[in-house]
Amino acid sequence: MGAYAELIAYQRETEALGQVAGRLSWDQETMMPRGAAAQRAEESAAMQGVLHARRSDPRIADWLAAAEAELAQEDTVARAQLREIRRGYERTLKVPAALAMALARETALAQGIWAEARAEEDVARFLPALSEVLRLRREEGAALAGAGGDAYDALLQDYEPEATAAELAAMFGAMRPRLVALRDKVQGAGEVPGLSGAFDTALQLELSRELALAFGYDLNRGRIDRAVHPFSSGSGADVRITTRTDPSDPFNCLYSTIHEVGHACYEQAVDPDFGLSALGRGVSMGVHESQSRIYENQLGRSRAFCGWLYGRMREKFGDFGVADEEAFFRVVNRLGRGYIRTEADEVQYNLHVLLRFDLERALVAGDLLPGDLEAAWNDRFQRDFGYAVPKPSQGVLQDVHWSVGLFGYFPTYSLGNLYAGCLHAALRRDLPDLDADLARGDPSRATGWLREKVQRHGALYGPREVIERACGAAPSEAPLLEYLEEKFTPFAG
């Protein structure tokens, strides 16, 4: 075997072990007995120790150097494999194995503590765990950044390679005034009534499964379970999603499912030749989020698809207090008071993300202490939304992210919205008659376009490059803002 073949074979085993580690996390959020948390923390730490040792093996440097000399310059796939392996190797070398294991252990414990604190509305219960996770992640960020580097930017690279916090803040800053103006204009037209009645849980799950299949989720290589916080996990031949149900709000289940199916379809669509390799997954969380958001919003909340969904919900649930398809479209897309990011409308969603982005940057920088986080959150929410947070589960305890150490993850949600805006403009350009399909409940041509333009490439191209190749232009916030204004301005009357 040549050096490249040896490296790829070694990487395949490492990727397989990484999938096993991911399955431990999936199990912890779905099926693990509550009393197993301490043991799971040790299992996760042990697995992280094995992975760290493999990812920092000095043979990787030798294989990389030898493989560079072996490969033809035009071998795009092989050179992309080397690029991604080298990036992971260099980052792993900067983080001591003991720190990587400590993070795995503490985040596994903190996740359970967060869930209990959230259920009990008890922020103080969570603070010691949060403080320890933050301390370890700051240590990791400093190690990754090196002397004079920015720890938050270094952590951000785990989720959005090539991005910086300053660059993202500038893009988000350009979005904010128009989002606030649009929100105020639409809300000034008055409240839109919601659904009425109770919605059977089993029927919600039946319809969510139907939606998952309609959007292309392959249940032969996946499954749908329930969790407190919906998520997608895995890649290749084993990609799992979760959703949640609320007897008074079926949209929580249905649109969470469509959203997570967007993530899952991305992973299922990656070129099988890239399976269990450095290219065999989504290239970044921003691109990943672009898929989940365009599935959920530009397709799933479109006027055409809402017309079809209205009929299916009437068949499932009977009369739920909405007169017709147009009224249903308004209900699905209504702007109202709300506290939960994952339930926010398209206009206000990014305001929820920017709040978290600013707070976590301050936490990592040491400008905000964990003990002051709840007050800072509540003050910022009051300023941004104009009303007070009533309880921690609707405020600082609503998201799982900080308990599992995902500092640097939140801005990728808004970046994903931005990317989705660009992709949607290109999609509509290429498929001008798409609404006829969506009105039949058939998004397959749209999801096929996304599979061909984005998903099949995995990590072959960088995040910005894959969006630019799909859209024919560099990503910007303009298409998203134009889409939102065109969709929501008529709601202002």
Automatic annotation (TrEMBL):
Annotated active site: 260 (proton donor/acceptor)
Binding site for Zn(2+): 259, 263, 289
Reaction(s) this enzyme catalyzes, per UniProt: Release of a C-terminal amino acid with broad specificity, except for -Pro
Listed InterPro entries: Peptidase_M32_Taq
Cofactor (UniProt): Zn(2+)
EC identifiers of the protein: 3.4.17.19
Entry superkingdom: Bacteria
One MF term in the entry's GO annotations: metal ion binding
Role: Broad specificity carboxypetidase that releases amino acids sequentially from the C-terminus, including neutral, aromatic, polar and basic residues.
Family assignment from sequence similarity: Belongs to the peptidase M32 family.
PANTHER family per record: CARBOXYPEPTIDASE 1 (PTHR34217:SF1), METAL-DEPENDENT CARBOXYPEPTIDASE (PTHR34217)
Protein name: Metal-dependent carboxypeptidase
Organism: Roseovarius nubinhibens (strain ATCC BAA-591 / DSM 15170 / ISM)
Classification lineage: Bacteria, Pseudomonadati, Pseudomonadota, Alphaproteobacteria, Rhodobacterales
